[in-house]
Write a structure and sequence with these properties.
Layout lengths: L1 E4 L2 H10 L6 E6 L2 E7 L5 E7 L2 E8 L2 E3 L2 E4 L3 E15 L9 E14 L6 E9 L2 E8 L7 E7 L2 E4 L4 E4 L12 E4 L6 H6 L13 E2 L3 E4 L5 E7 L7 E5 L5 E6 L8 E4 L2 E2 L2 E7 L2 H6 L2 H4 L15 E6 L1 H4 L30 H14 L3 E4 L29 H10 L3 E7 L4 H17 L4 E5 L14 H16 L3 E5 L14 E4 L7 H4 L7 H4 L35 H10 L4 E3 L4 H5 L2 H9 L4 E10 L3 E8 L5 E7 L4 E6 L9 E8 L12 E8 L4 E6 L4 E8 L4
Parallel strand pairs: 24-25, 24-30, 25-26, 26-27, 27-28, 28-29
Antiparallel strand pairs: 1-2, 2-3, 3-4, 4-5, 5-13, 6-7, 6-12, 8-9, 9-10, 10-11, 11-22, 11-23, 12-21, 13-20, 14-15, 14-17, 16-19, 17-18, 18-23, 19-20, 31-32, 32-33, 33-38, 34-37, 35-36, 35-38
Helix pairs in contact: 6-7, 8-9
Bound molecules: 1-deoxynojirimycin (NOJ) and calcium ion.
């Protein structure tokens, strides 16, 4: 519903003074309203209501450009257009089979009143679960090629909401979440105490990353993020601790500019998802809907996958990525000197291939296979890796043939150590090499400071780099899993070969740092996962005493919770991260990892509260089986799970993997029990989760005789 409203008071003023009072244009969809106006100074402003109550008060919009430093005022409205869209589409891989895209769109066309009269359009889309808006720079004279020096989008909130946040670092999202009121956000201490992150560039102690998850004192859930962040830097939010007005803070480039644009062009969508139910925030498809359809026409080669890898053993110090003892890859008498702890050796890789083949796991990742690891970390150097030269003990041909004979896909690894320019130079060579050896997917990584020097992981230059890699990979029919990129904003709809990203604090932090507390995974789906899948690497079975040389390290999780994460944390690409021998020691629990799919026809969020618990049910793609994952924070709790999503009148066999009666993450994390039950659509399962625990369930329809 789109209408123009002239508020009564404003109408009065209009007649009294004969001056133009702000005209308010509103658009409604369900419980969500968005209003637009130009204020007295000709500044574009918007506000958002949910159930007729403000959730974003009048907030300013606009820019500073190199060609117009006041591109936020003196506008006049020249036209408006509206449009209603109701459609369904099918993601290539996803949490549901069908996605409904239903919104009301309003476009306002603005012109600067002052010379030289540049144009700006703003497009609003109102969905039942929130709003998205973007700025569009139409093709025009003068403003053809320009520099965005600042964006002034405000989110003027109505109160001191509880928020789940990480600091506005230009280079990483790999932080622990803080939970505090908006008024208490100050990331100084957290950045100082956080000793486990390689690159740290936090310039504003009040800036936080998006997705920013909030809860109001009257129980509304609000999530601010963006969609389709392409050719533009990531948006962070500067928090005004007193007035709760948040404002966009774009990640700058090496010389302090934010973006270089050529009209016609546009910004990413700014998104506000809102609901009175936390479960609906997790179920929202708004961010995906705001992204463009697939850039890839034939997507038949894009496949979901589980994989194991020569990886956790390096993370925990048992073996090394590097082949040689020497800190520099220079050789002695022309030869690398082996350190005898190199993980990616042919015999070891074959062990993983055997394991994958035996258990029906599709892929094997091998890190540390290629020359360069003696010299990769913290050096800000180019030409460390060429992506095609294996170490002497990695027999590429033999491994390729062996994997093929065992029906296992090898997963390539390209660590760039942040040298994006170097990677671009080798990209065609590296992808051709992959095609030649039958590698169909690659895990890439950008640890360390970025080259071009002065650029950061989340700026416009790197954003374009990641997109170029995704595009080129698509040309070579290669799927990608990107570590250390900007956080996702739903662009896996456009690039479905971009299966997953890291861009968050994954399970690996429990290997090489103080780790992440049990609440971490109950916050991630409300924050990091709002933009898309994460390569979190769940499934650790040996939860204590796994780290060589650091006996005090432990996972902040029970074993049952590690299983539950395969369902709670969505990704079409999931690693079974632990060592084969740790799975072989617990074959009954490992069965769940073998059974759980990574691609789904349907998803129901059964219960959720950020920071406390989540229970999610998903239906396997093309099959009648359902899977449930439930997790809790450091508190033990009982979760009621109504199984009303099951087919009526049918009986299902429930295989329940739960915490043992004496389990808790700290003292007894590996205690679990497996139970079988018959359940139906009217069954309500009551499951006790241990402190830091979880539960994983497989529900198989029993065929009628
Ligand atoms: C950081 C990644 O997150 C991790 O998974 C990888 O093993 C290392 N970089 C080395 O590339
Ligand atoms: Ca990482």
């Amino acid at each position: 519903m789109i209408k123009k409203v002239v508020p009564l008071f404003a109408a009065l003023l209009l007649t009294l003074q004969l001056s133009a009072a702000p005209t308010v244009i509103s658009v409604t969809k369900g419980k969500v309203d968005i209003m637009f106006r130009l204020n007295e100074t000709g500044q574009p402003q918007y506000s958002v209501q949910f159930n007729k109550k403000d959730i974003v008060k009048w907030s300013s919009m606009g820019f500073s450009l190199d060609k117009d430093s006041t591109f936020y005022k003196d506008f006049e409205l020249i036209d408006t257009q509206k449009k209603v869209v109701n459609e369904n589409w099918q993601p290539v891989l996803g949490e549901v089979k069908n996605i409904r895209n239903s919104y009301e769109q309003l476009t306002v066309q603005l012109k600067k009143k002052t010379a030289p009269g540049y144009f700006l359009n703003i497009v609003f889309r109102v969905f039942e679960d929130g709003v998205g808006f973007r700025y569009v720079f139409p093709k025009q004279k003068g403003l053809d090629y320009f520099v965005v020096t600042d964006e002034y989008t405000q989110f003027n909130l109505t109160g001191d909401h509880k928020s789940f946040w990480i600091p506005g670092d230009y280079d990483t999202n790999e932080y622990l979440y803080s939970t505090s009121l908006l008024s208490k956000i100050d990331n100084t201490l957290m950045v100082k105490n956080s000793t486990d992150i390689a690159v740290r560039t936090v310039k504003d102690k009040y800036a936080v990353q998006t997705p920013l998850m909030m809860k109001t004192s009257d129980g509304l859930y609000i999530n601010i993020h963006e969609a389709a962040q392409l050719n533009y830097p990531a948006m962070q939010l500067h928090v005004d601790n007193k007035n709760f007005a948040l404002s966009s803070s774009l990640v700058p480039d090496a010389v302090g500019n934010k973006a270089y644009l050529r009209a016609a062009s546009h910004t990413p969508w700014r998104t506000i998802i809102v609901s009175d139910k936390s479960t609906e925030i997790l179920a929202s498809k708004m961010i995906l809907n705001l992204n463009e359809p697939s850039f890839i026409k034939n997507t038949s080669w894009i496949k979901p996958m589980k994989f194991v890898g020569v990886w956790w053993e390096m993370q925990t110090g048992k073996s090394t990525w590097s082949y040689s003892e020497y800190a520099d890859s220079t050789t002695i008498n022309g030869e690398l000197i082996p350190n005898n702890r190199h993980g990616a050796n042919t015999a070891n890789v074959k062990k993983y291939i055997d394991f994958a083949s035996k258990h029906g796991i599709q892929g094997v990742l091998v890190e540390g296979w290629n020359v360069g690891w003696e010299d990769w970390f913290g050096n800000w150097k180019e030409n460390v890796f060429d992506f095609v030269t294996p170490y002497p003990d990695f027999d590429l041909k033999a491994i390729t043939a062996y994997a093929k004979s065992k029906n296992v896909k090898m997963i390539m690894h390209h660590e760039t150590s942040g040298a994006a320019t170097n990677y671009e130079r080798y990209l065609d060579t590296a992808f051709r090499f992959m095609n030649n050896y039958g590698y169909t997917s690659v895990k890439t990584g950008y640890v360390g400071k970025i080259i071009p020097r002065g650029e950061t992981h989340d700026g416009q230059w790197m954003t374009n780099h990641y997109e170029r890699v995704a595009q080129k990979a698509a040309l070579y029919k290669i799927m990608i899993d990107v570590h250390e990129p900007m956080r996702p904003t739903g662009i896996h709809r456009t690039y479905p070969n971009w299966l997953a990203s890291e861009a968050g604090r994954g399970n690996e932090y429990n290997a090489f740092s103080i780790g992440s507390p049990p609440e971490h995974e109950t916050i991630l789906p409300f924050t990091r996962y709002m933009g898309g899948p994460m390569d979190f690497t769940p499934g650790i079975f040996k939860l204590k005493n796994y780290a060589t040389g650091a006996p005090d390290r432990q996972m902040h999780s029970t074993l049952a919770k590690q299983l539950a994460l395969y369902v709670v944390l969505y990704s079409p690409l999931q690693m079974a991260a632990d060592l084969p021998e740790n799975y072989e020691a617990k074959p009954d629990a490992f069965q769940f990892i073998k059974d759980v799919p990574t691609d789904w026809d349907d998803t129901k969020i059964i219960a959720a509260e950020p920071g406390d618990f989540i229970a999610t049910a998903r239906k396997e793609k093309g099959r009648s089986d359902w899977f449930i994952g439930a997790i809790t924070d450091e508190e033990n709790r009982t979760i009621d799970m109504p199984l009303d999503f099951l087919d009526k009148g049918e009986t299902y066999k429930a295989t329940i993997y739960k915490d043992g009666p004496d389990a808790d993450w700290k003292n007894n994390p590996e205690s679990y029990t497996i139970e079988n039950l018959s359940v139906q659509n009217n069954t309500v399962l009551k499951i006790k989760l241990a402190a830091g625990g979880g539960c994983a369930i497989r529900l198989q329809k029993i065929r009628k005789k």
